[in-house]
Amino acid sequence: MYKIIIVPSVIDTQRIDNFLINKFKNVPKSMIYRMLRKGKIKVNKKKILPKFKIKSHDIIKIPDIYLNKIKPVKYNLTLDKIKFLKKTIIFEDEYILVINKPSGIAVHGGSGINYGIIENFRCLFKKKKFLELVHRIDKETSGILLIAKKRSILKTLQKQLMEKKIIKEYIALVKGNCFKQKYIYIKNFLIKNFSNKKIKVKIDNKGKYAETKFKIIKNYKDIMLIKINPITGRTHQIRVHMSYLNFPIVNDQRYGDENFNFQFQKYYNLDRLFLHAKSITFIHPKNNKKIRIFAPLSNELNNCLLKLRCK
Question: Which of 17, 138, 252, 257 is catalytic?
Answer without folding.
Answer: 138
